[in-house]
Amino acid sequence: MSTATTSNSPGKWVVLPHYVFAALAFVALSILLLFSTDAFSGHYFHPKLLTLTHVAALGWATMLIFGALYQLLPVVLECKLYSEKLATIAFGFLGAGTILLAWCFWNFELGHVMHVAACSLVISFILFNINVIQTARLAPKWTIESDFIVTSAIWLLVTGIVGLVMVLNFTMAFLPVEHTHYLKLHAHIGMAGWFLLLIIGVGAKLIPMFLLAHAESFKKLNWSYNLINAGLVFFIFDHLFFHTALLPVYAGLVVGGVLLFMLFIYETSKTRQRHDVDLGMKQTFVALGLLVLPIVLVFIVSSKVALPQQLLSSVYLVYGISVFLGFISAIILGQTFKTLPFIVWMHAYEAYVGRFKTPLPKDLYNHTIQRWQNISYLLGFILLITGILLRNQQLILAGAIGFTITSLLYTANVFQLLMHKVQELKPFSYGNASV
Amino acid sequence: METQVSEDFGNEVYETLKYIIDPEVGINIVDLGLIYSVSLDGELLEIELTLTTPGCPMSGTIVNATEQILLKRFPNLDVKVNLVWSPPWSTEMITEEGMRQLEGK
């Protein structure tokens, strides 16, 4: 039997600030949503909507994913993180870039501050790429999960570069066609290339791990990877150079990849030994269920369906929201409570385990708050998209209130975890071992 | 579970290790099937232990916990914990008691 190494986890000051920033960004996002109900009746290229999208995509989702990934990368790739220093610097650039960009979009200031913001973000993504790629190179074996994660990081950088080019174009106007043309490119590379590939890559490892299940075969995951990337590359070339009517075909490739991932999870979960699914995993399954909405809508937005212009604008908005506030937010709300309690627990109790009775990670946060967080989230989401489709501002406001409640409950629980103090521990008394 | 020590002593070791709970699963490491072998060579108590997944972030914690609890329970012995990946852990290694707990019975 070969002897293995011990823990690869990075320091808590590398990981935890990302969770703090993301939770506060989620609160900020919800409050901005409360003040943006009027913006949903127009075009998606609206300053308030651009602000909301970038706070959601960068401050909330990407920030949390960066933090979680620094913790999870060693789990998935089975090696230490390449550089904690790079991670900390990337955090600084991502945080500063997000705040500046949100301020610029909200006030529609398209000048130098926005250039600085976009450059900060691209620097952050470059540093993140170096860290991810170098960590993957340290891994004892290259797996399909490595493919997903490394490729997603590269797509994030491409998304950032396209964004930077668009920001420069605001003041220099050098791009040959209108801005929204590139916005579609920017958004889809971000959604399918960065978020989708990353979530699939990490989810393929973590979901079976949390369910105590094992994968029989990785063929479906391999095909999922190939289809999503093929769909995205075809889409980019077509959108830039050819302008054919084949967009639904490319969307079909990406959707095929997503369905294969879902099939992989379904088949793997049939072998699971763990049946007491907690609230974090339930929310994760809700997130996977919510993927149905963008899967259906992507065919509508990529086809030239003859719909009234107003309805089409609403469908575009619901499509974007179903990705950022639907799938991605739902999965973060669930997975935060599968990862953060362990990180906090490990740093608080590592020195005491084996000598004293310690609480378990699941004892460090409030499950009732988590339940209400999940309920208010789902209600908020349903109300919001219904309000957008019906162009009803009261419903949109009700949805925004739902999201605000969710963000406050989520943040309260996250801060309860982060402020956790080690309790007075009792030493073991042998003879009555029990779980 | 391969025990290369007397049955009584082996049982005592396993009972002691049942105090260590896998923080994610919530089941002790013995019933989860993570202890591969217990052996005693003179005053050296050696444990071979695995984890549910090779990249487990709890590896250091569980190894430390195993060492600490055995040193406390058997202060006259030296303790060495070897983290091993072969054979890889699978759910078939969970004991009947562990399965009962997983099913929430």
SSE layout and pairing:
The complex is a heterodimer of chains A (435) and B (105).
Chain A: H1 12-34, H2 47-77, H3 84-107, H4 112-138, H5 144-172, H6 179-211, H7 219-242, H8 247-269, H9 279-290, H10 292-302, H11 309-349, E1 356-357, H12 367-390, H13 393-418, E2 426-427
Antiparallel strand pairs in A: 1-2
Helix pairs in contact in A: 1-2, 1-3, 1-13, 2-3, 2-4, 2-6, 2-11, 3-4, 4-5, 5-6, 6-7, 6-8, 7-8, 8-10, 9-11, 10-11, 11-12, 11-13, 12-13
Chain B: E1 2-4, H1 7-17, E2 35-41, E3 44-49, H2 59-73, E4 78-83, H3 96-102
Parallel strand pairs in B: 1-2, 3-4
Antiparallel strand pairs in B: 2-3
Portion of residues in beta strands of chain B equals 15-25%
Spell the H/E element sequence of chain A.
Answer: HHHHHHHHHHHEHHE
Unreliable runs of chain B, pLDDT <50, ≥5 residues?
none
Low-confidence stretches of chain A: 1-6
Mean pLDDT of chain A: 92
Shape of chain A: globular
One letter per element, helices H and strands E, the order of chain B comes to EHEEHEH
How would the global form of chain B be characterised?
globular
Task: Describe, in plain words, how this protein is organized in 3D.
The complex is a heterodimer of chains A (435) and B (105). Chain A has 435 residues and is mainly alpha-helical. Chain A is built from 13 helices and two strands. A two-stranded antiparallel ribbon of chain A has the order 1-2. With 105 residues, chain B is α/β, with parallel strands linked by helices. Chain B has a four-stranded mixed sheet, with helices on one face. The chains are: A mainly alpha (435), B alpha/beta (105).
